[in-house]
Amino acid sequence: MSTNYRDLEIYNSSLNLFFKVHSLSLKLPKYELYELGSQIRRSSDSVVTNIVEGYGRKRYKADFIKFLTYSHASNDETILHFNKLLHLYPPIIVPHQNLINEYETLGAKLNKFIQYVELNWKT
User: Source organism's superkingdom (predicted)?
Assistant: First the structure.
């Protein structure tokens, strides 16, 4: 069992993905920076932030699961935004479309961690 959220693979993966998404979003056209660019930055940030907030409430199993579920939902939202950007701005996004696969992998890991907490977490 990890003693700190920084020990969690899902935390480290989501933080690294956030940094990649943030940098990529700044390459969008200026008019999109505050629209879809802002949405993908916020959803990507929410993935990692909810892991940290949930871990801070790990004493309360139901709260931990709730925040991990929020993280998973934000992960799905980030994938949706990527798909929209891929359609709207292929020259910018296509070279980075592997990030969609990385988010899908993270989603599977989040789901497995939620299942682990549901079945094994002791409060």
Answer: Bacteria
Q: What gap in Å lies between CA 55 and CA 52, rounded to an integer?
A: 5
* pLDDT per 10-residue tile (average), the chain, 123 residues: 86 98 96 95 98 96 97 98 97 95 98 97 83
pTM: 0.94
Please say whether the beta carbons of 41 and 22 come within 8 A. Answer: yes
As a whole number of angstroms, the distance between CA 67 and CA 109 comes to 15
Distance CA 88, CA 95 (A): 14
Q: CATH assignment of 5-120, given 3.30.420.40, 1.20.1440.60, 3.40.1190.20, 3.90.10.10?
A: 1.20.1440.60
